[in-house]
Structures are given as C-alpha cells and as structure tokens.
Amino acid sequence: xxxxxxxxxxxxxxxxxxxxxxxxxxxxxxxxxxxxxxxxxxxxxxxxxxxxxxxxxxxxxxxxxxxxxxxxxxxxxxxxxxxxxxxxxxxxxxxxxxxxxxxxxxxxxxxxxxxxxxxxxxxxxxxxxxxxxxxxxxxxxxxxxxxxxxxxxxxxxxxxxxxxxxxxxxxxxxxxxxxxxxxxxxxxxxxxxxxxxxxxxxxxxxxxxxxxxxxxxxxxxxxxxxxxxxxxxxxxxxxxxxxxxxxxxxxxxxxxxxxxxxxxxxxxxxxxxxxxxxxxxxxxxxxxxxxxxxxxxxxxxxxxxxxxxxxxxxxxxxxxxxxxxxxxxxxxxxxxxxxxxxxxxxxxxxxxxxxxxxxxxxxxxxxxxxxxxxxxxxxxxxxxxxxx
Length: 388
Prior knowledge:
five-stranded mixed sheet, four-stranded antiparallel sheet
C-alpha cells in the first residue's frame, strides 16, 4: 500500500464536535499518551502514580502503584499490551496493562551496571517490533533494554541526551547536546552535528507514523554581531539521509516543549510553556490551530486524527477538535490484483475497509494484529474506502 495521500480515502469518525472533559483526580499530571488503538489514555502524575482512562468515557480503568517520583515520560508498546514509564529521579518501569502487573522495575542510581548513571531521565520509546525499549538520560546517554527482562542490550553515546525515536525499520535516533545520532543494532550509522554556533541543539525528535519524515524541535543558534541569538524551530528531516527539508520558527526561547504526530502523519502538534498547543500541517508547515491548554506541564496527545487530549493543572483531561482538519471523504485506494491467499497490504491498526458501495469488507481483529499492523488477504481487485 502506498503512503501517498492522493489515493487514500479517509472517512474519519468524528468522536465529538465540542470540547469535552474526562473526569480525573486532583493531582498534577505530568505525562500523557493515548494507546495505539485509541481506546485508553495513560496519565502519569508528579507523585509517581499512573492511571489508565477509558478514552471514550473518562472512567478510570486501572490505577498502578507509585514507583519513583514525577512520571516524566511514558510509552505504549506497539501492540498496546505494555506500558513503559520513566521518572525524572531515575526509575524505569514496564507494566502489563491488562493485569496491572509490574514486569520490570529499574532505578538508574541503583543499577548503574544496567543503565548509565543519571538522575534525570528524558526519553523513552519502544522499537517497532516491541522487543526493545530505548531510555535516554540527561547525563547518561541512551541505553537499549530488552523489553522482556530489562537487560541492557546496547549502551549508546553517553552525554547529555534529550530524547529518542525509532524509525519503522528498527533504526534509533537520539537527540543530544551535540547533534543527532542514528543507531542500528547498537552501531552508530550517522551523526548530524549541531554545535558550535552557528548551529543547533535538537531536543524532541519523532518519526512520522508512516516513516516518511523525521521531525525535530531544535534551538537554532546564530551570531548577530557579538550576540548569540537562539530561536526555536520545528525542522523536518529526510528519514534516510537526515538532510533538512523544511523548517518553521515556533518560539523565541530554548525551553524544549512536547511534540506529537497525528496518527495519519498529516499534522504535528507542539506544546509550549506559554500554555498553548499549536498544530501545523506537516506538508506545508502551515500553522492551522492554536489551543489554549493552560498547563505548565504541557502534557497532551492526539485522540484520533483530528482531536487533542491535554492536561490541565487543575487535574482534568480535555478533548477538543482541531480546527482546520477536515473529516470528509477525500479519495480512494485501489488494491491491485494478486495471487489469492498471499499476504499483502499491511495497514495501520484500527483501519476498516469498505467496498465502493460502502459495505464493510474487512476490519482489524486484535487476535491477528502483529506489531501494530494487520494484513489484508484474499480481497478482490477493486476500489475501497478506508476508515481510521
């Protein structure tokens, strides 16, 4: 299946036309991420507690026991069965979501032989196959853990590291004080230097869900006379060469905000310390919406392709539609003929296919999903619509 948006048909289910509040406890939240299938919202708190909410009702599904303080980051496994969390004081936990079982618990100050010593963890992400977890630290570089036992598989470049992201083909990108590193099986493949000035420091990094682009929030430094001027920039890189392909100024200070791609890879949302989430169209880098969230912790995520879930300091979750994103039929997708019984057409989780008359012909089954995708088989040649 091609990634070209020109031949995709997207019937997007509009979950809400107006903002809605989901009930939440009165503790200050510090991290948030929606599950891969969009059914649950994981929320971390500054006291170390972790709660799971039903995304449609706001009902608490499960409360996980505190471990460490200040949940700084969290990440769902690709199949949505496990949840990894990091705390700013150095804890790494992996939970089995269905039962609430704590599968892995590490502390970087107590297990320096496993994770480089650091008291400030800054990034966590899963490999696309769900077998490894990358954990970055402000003072300790990045370590790649075996997701089943917590053993360190690879120890990568040490130094001040702000985040990491996996490419669909198992490559790992880390953002550090000196630039961007690209790793494959623990070996450095590429390095994009950032400093000294004029140059940049990359903070947040994230591959598009379809792998077509790498987005980074960077601080560009330039010399104006004798003065060093810093400008916050959203920059897109070619996913293979890492050559910069587009950029737009987003703020005038060096504080690293949070950044999330929409599930269909068409938009990028970024939160800042001014209390706003701003949304850019990825292809044009046109700013299409500004959402006031009023949260100094800047925690948010996408709920579907056209809604934002964000965290308020008061302890509530708000779901609002993004202005400027249409939810109408936009095209078609044509499946070529092929040998019956052969696997083909890998598509994202939670996709439904309908024939030209609107009849549903296939939808994802949790029992057959593999690594976040399912495979369509034995569909006749023809034109189909796609729901995400």
